[in-house]
Specification:
- The protein is about 30% helix and about 25% strand.
- The protein has 3 domains: about 1-30, no CATH class; about 65-205, Sandwich (Immunoglobulin-like), CATH 2.60.40.2660; about 225-335, Death Domain, Fas (Orthogonal Bundle), CATH 1.10.533.
- The N and C termini lie far apart (about 105 Å).
- Strands 3, 4, 5, 6, 8 and 10 form a 6-stranded antiparallel beta sheet that branches. A 4-stranded antiparallel beta sheet has the order 9-7-12-13, with no helix packed on it. Strands 1-2 form a two-stranded antiparallel sheet.
- With about 325 residues, the chain is of the alpha+beta class.
């Protein structure tokens, strides 16, 4: 008995004669086999659709482009204002008659998924801490992965240092991407770096500080670049008898310690200042000089060494007065 095997055909057992399949049957079996192996039109369309979807997802992930616009809104009779930073996929300006366009991008930029930081920089305005605006003037936003149009809007509550602003550049805006490898924003170029510009001068007409309490802070202080209007309330008039307070003050006054020493004459003479310099400057730097000067001031004149005298009588730069009041005195009282 002989056994013959044919692919795709059942075994046939014959005794002596072998009956082979006809050529037509073999061709029909081959055609059926090829048809089974050939993908259907539905399979091809599904395959192309999935591939196209993956390409689009990758494109959306790495090529999402945005524009940035910055608007200023001033409030009459007060030196308060708001800056609105809008980041969106289109560059159409908003329709708001009360807002002034400060900056607008001309070219869209790619923002990859991750954390971005919006940062304002200027010496013409400060954070409005009365409404709990962060004094650093920085805000964070998370750009989500595989999410179309991560548009966002960040608003800053501000106070102008003077009642006039403009024309020209009044500050800068940076939008920076977080480097996940080291948690830093400074290792890469900013996504956006915009000059905040006014084409004309804007003046805030307000009544006198002595007649209008709108300029008086919650703590009772009045902060003004005009030295005659500057007031420090009893609540904020801390004595310099606490080492932690003196240490914090020295951080902001480290570059002013010689000027302060001369303004406090005859409490300190030039010989005293030279002694501070030779004893502390070389080894410990300006911060230690400022610390020792303030500490010695309290030892020599405890009734005079206080925040009110420091901020209102020594003719310090107005930005330092603001920083000391907001970042040192207010935080020290609340701690």
């Amino acid at each position: 008995m002989a056994t013959i095997y044919h692919r795709g055909v059942k075994r046939s057992f014959i005794n002596e004669e072998v009956n082979l399949l006809s050529s037509k049957k073999i061709k029909r079996l081959q055609d059926n086999h090829e048809q089974d192996l050939r993908p259907s039109k539905y399979d091809l369309s599904s395959q192309y659709e999935n591939q196209f979807k993956r390409i689009n997802e990758k494109k959306n992930e790495f090529e999402e482009e945005y524009h940035c616009q910055v608007y200023l809104k001033l409030y009459s009779t007060t030196c308060k204002c708001t800056i609105d930073v809008i980041v969106k996929s289109t560059n159409d300006t908003i329709d708001d008659d009360d807002s002034i366009l400060l900056a607008k991008t001309r070219i869209a930029k790619v923002i990859k998924p991750g954390v971005v930081r919006v940062r304002l920089v200027s010496t013409l305005f400060i954070a409005d801490v009365d409404v709990y605006e962060d004094s650093s003037l920085m805000k964070l936003e998370t750009i989500k992965k595989n999410y179309n149009h991560n548009n966002f809007d960040k608003q800053f509550a501000l106070k102008l240092k003077n009642n006039r602003i403009g024309p020209g550049v009044i500050g800068k805006l940076f939008i920076e991407s977080l480097d996940p490898s080291n948690g830093s924003y400074i290792n890469q170029s900013p996504i956006f770096e915009l000059n905040l510009s006014l084409t004309s001068e804007h003046e805030i007409i307000s009544t006198s500080f002595n007649q209008n309490n709108e300029n008086r802070l919650i703590c009772g202080c009045v902060l003004s670049s005009d030295q005659s209007h500057l007031e420090i309330s009893d609540k904020c008039n801390l004595k310099l008898n606490d080492m932690k307070l003196i240490h914090r003050l020295a951080e902001y006054l480290r570059c002013q310690w010689k000027f302060i020493g001369r303004e406090l004459a005859p409490c300190f003479s030039e010989i005293d200042l030279i002694d501070f310099q030779q004893t502390y400057l070389i080894l410990d730097g300006n911060h230690e000089c400022a610390y020792q000067l303030l500490r010695e001031w309290y030892i020599r004149h405890p009734d005079q060494a206080n925040i009110r005298y420091l901020l209102t009588r020594l003719k310090l730069p107005f930005d330092i007065i603001i920083e000391i009041h907001n970042d040192v005195v207010r935080k020290f009282i609340s701690s």
